[in-house]
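Human: I'm a chemist; would you kindly supply sequence and structure tokens for a protein?

Assistant:
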Amino acid sequence: MKIMSSAYVRWSIFILATILIVYFLPRKNGREFVYETNRPWAFSLLTAPFDIPVHLDSIRATQVRDSLELRFEPVYFRDNNIEKTALSQFSAQLNSSEEIALSPLERNRLLAQVRKVYESGIVDADTYSRIAASRLPGIRVIHDNVALSVPTNRYRSARKAYAYIDSVMNDRRFSHAIGVCGLADILVPNVIIDSAETRRLHDEVLQRAMAPIGVIQQGERIIDRGDIVTPQLYTILRTYEDISRQRGGSKSGDYYPVIGQLLYVVLLLASLYAYLYFFRPDYYRSRRIMLMVMMVITAIVLFAYGMSRAFISGIYLVPFAILPIVFVIFLDTRTALFSHIVTVLLTALSGTFPLEFIFLQFMAGVAAIVSLKELTRRSQLIRTAAIVFCTYALAYVAVELFHTGSIEKLSPRMFGFLGINAVFISFAYVAVFLLEKIFGFISKVTLVELSDINNPVLRELSEECPGTFQHSMAVSNLASAAAHRVGANVQLVRAGALYHDIGKIDNPAFFTENQHGVNPHDALDPVQSARIVIGHVSDGIRRAEKAKLPGKILDFIREHHGAGKAKYFYNTWCNAHPDSSPDNSLFTYPGPNPTSKETSILMMADAVEAASRSLSTHTTESISALVNKIIDSQVDEGLHDDSPLSFRDIRTIKEVFIARLRTMYHARISYPEIVKTSEGSSSTDSNGQQQ
């Protein structure tokens, strides 16, 4: 049932990932291509299936448009009613005010000046500013339904017209009359822009300027593979695609591209599953690992699709190298490389130039894997990001030189994208942290941090249980040496060994290594003593959970005695009750037995290191006999039956333990004391040196 459940989860993940990738994969029909200006055409010969008008390319179109805007004359009309109303209003004010001390002749002169500025033309302030800046040398004025071009050098704004009249009629009496009559409020523009007509005329002129300059007839060659996409060809191709979309076509084959994409995605993901099934069956059987692998791949692919749709070359901002970095940290280099290749191929469909994209990302992934065999310090990510950027840059230069044959075609924008990509890669530690929390994985960086003896839990262990702490250090060194020889996770074994006995902090005096002449077990029944000693496992688990230690560290605490017996107290009880049968459950650890190479190695190292302290002599023979006896006893009791260790591994572990213990307990020479001669002088050696 468990196997069926694992298979169900595994293939459900496969189907869900396939659906998401195919659904969000950018769609392209047979009339659309991926291309850029000044780059080679990557497709076969393209001929015109219908007549295609040839428009100006973007550069020439911009030049024509700019020239048109510079020379275009907007349409204005003269409103004579405004002029008549203003003159009538000013004349009435001028003749009715008793404060104005002007003769009739002088009043007519002032009125004539107002009429003069209106005849010259008054425009709005915005129009006048353009005239003053020489940006509007002429306008079109509608007269009898005919647009006549008129120079603008005589036009004034209302403010300028007022200033002109005030300067011409510079007598104080005239200035007083102008102010009393409120001329500033009377002067308003009489030459007014005709917005609707201006827009119509502008569109008409622009349409004529942008009219097709030629036509590509049906069957005529447009572009062939290897041709450089010039700005003019780019415009023609865009026109071809627009017309193709407008014309539409038969819908009967529209589902074929989707079927092709589905097969493409299924084959790639199936190849990943096949690799894991045949070469990493342990990963394949793990629902947690399979979920992590597919989730990371799908997330990166979908993010890449979104970036490619957001803007041109946006796909190069996606930090693809984070995937091999994460997989190297949690899995292995081969799986990291294979998964990276699958991810890149899944994403290549959305790239502008798929082959170039695949080459760049493949090189970046290899650089990331080679530069980061294992992550033990955060600073390594900075170095890896720098190496990946240099690899990206060199690969991009190689591709550009290959395609264009000129270093001048290199794009600073592309280097900027690759630089941003490298910055994202340097923050891969965030992804590692999230995956640790989500899936319960443990990285080498975390293990290194846990192995720091300044960690609060280890510091408390060293202070409360100094003997246990020294025992844990010795077990850590012994177990890590064996793990290295049999291909187990050395850093995991090292960290797990340091924490395996933290449960002894609650009752340090009940464990031999922390006793100083007084043994509290002497006053207890063997059953009570066994309960206290066995309890250090559950106490350690509670303490580890409180300290939020990773699950893999808890496995070392839980499994380092497995389901073995507290033999000292078991044997003591049996000797005291020769006629009774013991209750084995009272003397048995809760287990489970070790389920990994690492926890099996720790169980062996823990028992061997503790027993080696009781040897009266530490000769090669005595150490070898002890190691073989303890490990063979554990194997015979079935404590390592659930472990993936082979008999060859166990033999290797024994050899490592024997060699290490011999080194730890090697005999030391005694230093000689100075021997006084009868005369009281020190004796000397054969070379005449003092002894």
About this structure: The first strand starts at residue 46 and ends at 47. The longest helix spans residues 379-404. The radius of gyration is 45 Å. Strands lie at 46-47, 52-54, 75-78, 122-123, 138-143, 146-151, 156-157, 191-193, 214-216, 221-223.
